[in-house]
Amino acid sequence: MGVQEDEFGAWCAPGGPVPVQGETTWSFLHRVAVCYGLEVGELLAWGWWEWVNPVTESRGRRPDGEVLLNVTAQAQVAAWAGVPAMHLARALPSWTAGPASFGERAVADRGWARWRVGAQAWGPVSFGCRLCAARRSGRMERVWRYGQRWDRVCARHGRWLLDVGDGHDLEYLDVGGCREVAAAQARWLRVARRAVCTGAEPGSVFAVARAVVCGWWQQDAFWQREQVWGQRLERVTLDTSRRIEAASRWPAAWWRLVARDAVVFPEVVAVAAVLVDPALRLLVTDERPLVRRSRHHGRFVTALGDRLERGWLKEVERPERPSALQAWMRGLARELRSPSPSGSAHSGMWRVQAAHQPAEVGVGLRLLATTSPVAFRRHAGAAGWRAELWVPRRVGQGAGLKAVSQERFGEGLGHARRYVAQHGHLAVPHAGAPQDGFDLGRWLANLRAASAGLPPEYVRVLAELDVWWNPPWPISWQRAWYRARAHTLAHGPVSGGDNLAGLPRWLERWLRRQIADYSQLAAEQQQLLAQLGLTPAEIDRFHAWPARRRSVAHGLEAAHDYAARYGHLAVSQPTTHDGFALGKWLNLQRHRQRAAGRSTRLGRQLTDLDTWWNPPWPLDWQRYYWAARHHLHGLPDGAVWWPGRPDEDQTRQWLHEQQASWQHLHDKQRALVRSLAADTSGTGRRGPC
Prior knowledge:
Elements: H1 3-11, H2 25-35, H3 40-45, E1 49-51, E2 65-69, H4 71-81, H5 85-91, H6 97-100, E3 111-117, H7 119-122, E4 125-127, H8 130-137, E5 144-146, E6 153-154, E7 159-161, E8 172-174, H9 179-197, H10 202-217, H11 220-223, H12 228-243, H13 252-258, H14 260-275, H15 278-285, H16 298-307, H17 313-316, H18 324-337, H19 361-371, H20 373-383, H21 397-423, H22 440-449, H23 456-465, H24 475-491, H25 505-516, H26 523-531, H27 536-543, H28 552-566, H29 582-596, H30 601-609, H31 619-633, H32 648-660, H33 667-681
Parallel strand pairs: 1-3
Antiparallel strand pairs: 2-3, 4-5, 6-7, 7-8
Helix pairs in contact: 9-14, 10-14, 13-19, 15-16, 19-20, 28-30, 31-32, 31-33
């Protein structure tokens, strides 16, 4: 599959097998046996070697299994293949590890062999490209090779090589029509070099990026906006089906699982490049990722969406929804705050939690066969898919444990049905008192904690009882919603136009909190509130209530957002920000500050955001100053121009007006204008121009 293969072909015996770069020794033995018209089992049955850990035919052999040989056995294989042993050591990754695993038997007169799971030492085992193997040896032979997930594209023949042992006979996907996949594999080399420069292991970076993107693959909200993946998946499916007729009858769910890694590979490389980009990492420090809900979480995600050409990514990757990306951001924040003594390569930011691990193809196909047995029977024979593993697993206590687990789930499900019949939901508090000797709240809490690994039939049964049995927000919120829904069913929907009048105190306080944090709620939570009558229109009516008072925290948060977006707080009364009357609120704070005659605590917090938020001159003058400053120095990082800002010609005219009225300016105004004049002229003259 490259220059090294041509070198191997130069010293191989005529008609002998040509080793493929990265090939497993077990695969090479198969091809050696074919040269002699034998099966590999017949070759091993001749008793050439003694086995340290023999495996009987009844148990089978793993497709990712590996054979380690001592020096004598290696010399025999080299003689059979007509290939020098030193050259086999260059092509086969496990070749040099053989003698070291036998101790005193390494140089024995008799050949010794040992079975080992190669994937544990040399990485995943994938199929090799048969066309590349036939190009060198003239035979269309199956090849197994060690191939990392970022090295699966045969660019010469446009194939994405699949893992062995996934339970299907498909060896590759045709990605010749998706040139971006091969381009991403070439681009990964640069990403890996940058990862090393930042002190991270390239494999760990790729694992995190793959978990992030595969997490998006599982989200319906992502697919509702995504346009590229669907077209790429359809192209890969059609091109592969044309070459392999048996796979043309696969259902869409199987294709979506088998082709996932190939379809998302360009985005995985792009996300990995962002994760090791020092400039974009700085955005994470400003987002406070350790805070559960923050209005400033979007800068890094927005930058990531721009890199991926998916500007809507911020709507999908929300901080209240646990994901691999949010876990990485929290790990990065912890690493910046207290660096790990062992280095970033082993820090928490590069560890993918079990809940965020992508579902592997073999496991996913077995689950699909379990949940859709009719479709499995209809397509399994045609596609060659096997429900059982190639290698029988050890059986024994596992079956008993599974039976116990099913029995306990059945017991808890019975209590859950009775609770739903009485209360109408499964939002049971974690610390509730056991009922009938069964702690239903704790049982449900344990299921929610392990929801990523629950059997699909368990999840389906619980969802039939209560679709919100495991919401992505706190269960206390869901309990409050059910209580509010019971009130609205009895007394009618709530109304924001009457200032929530006539509601019980507990319900009014809870609804006011939801209105204050409405922009922070998930889309599903907003839909649930709409069922209570609290639609966006009703929330607007609530905000329009005369003499509406705003909390200090709400106003300060809006001011923080405005200053971060536009670079100043020189706003007048008509200005609103995200539905909040920021200009009116700031005017009120300015009046209070001047009436107090001193700097208040709130005033000091606003001064930290903008030194001139409360100037002793008109706000219109201050806005022109900020416009002139930004025109000269450029906008601060992450800031944008505000609506109605003065253009360059207006700013230049304003500077000339300051020169004409120089004697009437405040001393601090003169100092501000001098700083601008120094930038424009560099002469240090008294006037601005």
